[in-house]
Amino acid sequence: MQIQSLIHTIEGLKKITVEVILLPGLPQIYFLGQADAQIKESSHRIKSAIKLSGFQFPTSQQILVNLRPHQIKKSSLGLELAVVYGVLAETRQIEVPLNVDELTVYGELGLNGEVFEPEDLKYHVEDNDRGVILTGSKPKNGGGGYRFSRLVAERISEIENADYFPTEGEILKIERPKEYLNYEFTEEEAELLKLTAAGEH
Questions:
Q1: Which of 5, 11, 128, 153 could tie 148 with a disulfide, CB 3.0–4.6 Å?
Q2: Is it true that the peptide bond before 27 is cis, omega within 30 degrees of 0?
Q3: How far apart are CA 9 and CA 97, in angstroms?
Q4: What is the pLDDT of residues 138-169, one digit of tens each?
């Protein structure tokens, strides 16, 4: 099962492919493709969320999660919902839509199966003309002005019947600058520039 999700890069959120496969073995989740510690830690939330949502977690199979492209170090706030989607699809506990290749899955999980929209999603401006993003309920600091369509499921059990919300804002086309690319910044300066750009200040 292959699903599209999002990771952090210098240029913002970028799509990656999440490939989920089940093999005989101990019921563990293994991440391949340079996943950082935050992603690896999510395996415990994934297992708890699946079980406490009324679904079955595989008892005699290991779950391999392959993150492509392999050469990029992966950091992501919402990759765990994509893994859950892949596991439930592979075990035939949910029905996969025919146009799954047009779906991007990006959401944080609570231990009881709640799904939350990661706070960085509202800044996503990559071209999403051909699909929607499946995510969770809005973060406490609110959202709005989304430049893409969303499917919102507040719990894992609602994935197949998620509410649809069309694009709220105009899709922006952002071009990478061609000048001043040889400048070097400290980590603190780079973080400040990122926040300034993300907040459209």
A1: 128
A2: no
A3: 29
A4: 876 655 667 788 999 999 999 999 999 887 65
